[in-house]
Design brief:
Blueprint lengths: L5 E6 L4 E8 L3 E9 L1 H5 L6 H23 L8 E7 L3 H18 L3 E5 H12 L7 E6 L4 E8 L2 E7 L5 H12 L5 H9 L24 H16 L6 H27 L3 E5 L6 H13 L3 E3 L3 H4 L4 H12 L20
Parallel strand pairs: 1-4, 4-5, 6-9, 9-10
Antiparallel strand pairs: 1-2, 2-3, 6-7, 7-8
The chain binds 5'-O-[(R)-(carboxyoxy)(hydroxy)phosphoryl]adenosine and zinc ion.
Zinc ion binds next to α4.
Length: 340
């Protein structure tokens, strides 16, 4: 029986200060998330300066709680994993600095983890039997990627957004309708009362790139619709608008992912990232996969949102490969998927 590998993981790339203890990659002993959403709601979006200050305040208590609830001490740990990009530089730096100091003080190896690799890895926690290769749709506030997960932490990028990320589109449209921040969950909820076929919004194709996405035209179409209604003195049905916008996003994501799965003959499709919490997207991908005998994987919403358990999982597979970061590890705000 090989020795258990217990990893303390830290995530602070945006507005969640998170720490987790993960054993052997997929067993989550603790998963502590301190969300700053309420604070940023006051400003209608994440204020980077406030985010890093809040991370500084929360990082020590959050890590302590993760160790305490996992029932482990620093002596039981085998490594420290930390998100070092992409994300907000001032936010990332708090987690990276803390992880370096902790690893150095306790004499533990340090493993820098890519945030999106973490999102994909959330699927391994949810589905203990899932192994690469599989196709994966990564949809978060900053990313919209269709990838082949060739191996643990090894990705082949098939398509991505050429402008706004899916989550960004949700957030911007929610702000325009007056639903506030964060937009995704609010549109999801509002859309349940509306008719998704009430308004026909464009589903953009990117010329010459069948698997790329573009959401800025859709966002403009929603803004135009609102402006026209205002000029004409017409009342806007927010629920219909939310439902129709959401359908346009969900349809494009589903169509492209399924086209790719079909073309490559993939039997498994996973979804990952904050937008993978969206109830309409989950239902649409599930229905499309069922219709084509493809196995669909999606983490529980708590694992879709930013968390450290997913970083602990991704970090474990990097650790097994022998990846080690030294104390020169720095935050890389625009770190590309597959780069180190
Ligand atoms: O992965 P995540 O927590 O952070 C990033 O890495 O960006 O994703 C956050 C994004 C936000 O844009 C948020 O509005 C969106 O995910 N989101 C949703 C839902 N829950 C979160 N979008 C649509 N429907 C949801 N239920
Ligand atoms: Zn994220």
């Amino acid at each position: 029986m090989p020795k258990d590998i217990t990893i303390l993981a830290i995530e602070s790339s945006c507005d969640e200060t998170a720490a987790a203890v993960v054993r052997n990659g997929r067993e989550v002993l603790s998963n502590v998330i301190s969300s700053q959403i309420a604070l940023h709601t006051l400003y209608g979006g994440v204020v980077p300066e406030i985010a890093s200050r809040k991370h500084t305040e929360k990082i020590t208590p959050v890590v302590s709680e993760a160790l305490r609830t996992a029932g482990v001490s620093a002596d039981d740990l085998d490594a420290v994993a930390v998100t070092y990009g992409p994300g907000l530089v001032g936010a990332l730096l708090v987690g990276v600095s803390f992880a370096k100091a902790f690893a150095f003080a306790k004499g533990l190896p340090l493993v820098g983890v890519h945030h999106i690799e973490g999102h994909v890895a959330a699927n391994y926690i949810q589905y203990p039997e899932l192994e690469p290769p599989f196709a994966c749709l990564v949809v978060s506030g900053g990313h919209t990627h269709l990838v082949e997960t060739v191996d643990y932490g090894v990705f082949n990028i098939i398509g991505k957004t050429v402008d706004d990320a899916a989550g960004e589109a949700f957030d911007k449209v929610a702000r325009a309708i007056g639903l506030g921040y964060p937009g995704g969950p609010k549109i999801d909820r509002k859309a349940r009362e509306g008719d998704p076929d009430a308004i026909l919004f464009p589903k953009a194709h990117v010329e010459g790139s069948p698997y790329d996405f573009s959401f800025s035209g859709l966002k403009s179409a929603v803004l135009n619709y609102l402006n026209h209604a205002k000029m004409a003195g017409q009342e806007v049905n927010d629920a219909d608008l939310a439902a129709s916008f959401q359908k346009a996003v969900v349809d494009v994501l589903t169509e492209r992912a399924m086209e790719f799965v079909r073309e490559k003959g993939y039997q498994k499709l996973a979804a990952a990232g904050g937008v993978a919490s969206n109830s309409a997207l989950r239902a649409s991908l599930q229905a499309a996969c069922s219709a084509e005998n493809v196995e669909f994987y999606v983490p529980a919403p708590i694992l879709c949102t930013d968390n450290a358990a997913m970083i602990g999982c991704a970090g474990y597979y990097e650790y097994l490969k022998g990846v080690r970061s030294d104390l020169s590890l720095n935050a890389v705000p625009n770190l590309k998927l597959g780069e180190r």
